[in-house]
Amino acid sequence: MSVVPVFLYHAVSDDPPPWLARFTVGPRTFTEHLDMIADSGLRVVPLRRLVAALLGGPPVPPRSAVLTFDDGYADFASTVAPLLAARRLPSTLYVTTDALEPSGRGPFPSTATLTWDQVRELDAAGVEIGGHTVTHPQLDTLPRTAVREEVGGCKRRIEDVLGHRVDSFAYPHGYSSRTVRALVREAGWTSAAAIRADSAFSSEGDDPLRFARLMVRSDTGRDRFALWTGGEGAPVAPFAEGLRTRGWRAYRRARAATGRPYRAIPA
């Protein structure tokens, strides 16, 4: 069974707001990561190649990797896309639709996000645009009706803007549940990116509706990233959901039920 590193980035910036700093790498570090991926012999393939394999299609080539980016920050257009284009590397960008609306009342405080015009341009340039909900909530703490609105409304908005079908979804914060995954499938998404055990490799035996990713953060050192490019240093999905994950979900649900939701992003 092939080990597939699916790298997850958020912001690529030298000056992120404090709440986002932990999930940000600088442009120089990101460039170094791209060089390390190339030097390791990994071949970056479009996400759809991995999803096709997870759905029973042809296997991905040996030593494949995938690049994904969450949320839809403005630095993707200004910094990330040119670096990827120069190397002809495919990528998937999961956007939170309310963050792109001109109202300015999106879910990410004090952070510049993409515009819909930029998303259209990225789509036309070959970047796969995926969905990341409408408002970036913790889906596994919401009632079914709210989950349907978040995952279905996101899909409809993106498809309306781009004028074509979109298939790839990512769970905000990586949080899902059996019910959430069923509703994601019901909405018409064919794949959904998760975060398993903080960071894990995907594989051809992974679940297409919660495939694992390696989350790259500000404290992801060069040595750890080098291990990842060599197929080491993290568990390999699929694996059973752990007690810690179930306990954390129960805690967040209890907070939400009492009107004191856990805030993963500051208001």
Automatic annotation (TrEMBL):
<dbReference type="GO" id="GO:0005975">
    <property type="term" value="P:carbohydrate metabolic process"/>
</dbReference>
<keyword id="KW-0732">Signal</keyword>
<protein>
    <submittedName>
        <fullName>Polysaccharide deacetylase</fullName>
    </submittedName>
</protein>
<dbReference type="InterPro" id="IPR011330">
    <property type="entry name" value="Glyco_hydro/deAcase_b/a-brl"/>
</dbReference>
<dbReference type="Pfam" id="PF01522">
    <property type="entry name" value="Polysacc_deac_1"/>
</dbReference>
<dbReference type="InterPro" id="IPR051398">
    <property type="entry name" value="Polysacch_Deacetylase"/>
</dbReference>
<feature type="domain" description="NodB homology">
    <location>
        <begin position="63"/>
        <end position="267"/>
    </location>
</feature>
<dbReference type="GO" id="GO:0016810">
    <property type="term" value="F:hydrolase activity, acting on carbon-nitrogen (but not peptide) bonds"/>
</dbReference>
<dbReference type="GO" id="GO:0005576">
    <property type="term" value="C:extracellular region"/>
</dbReference>
<dbReference type="InterPro" id="IPR002509">
    <property type="entry name" value="NODB_dom"/>
</dbReference>
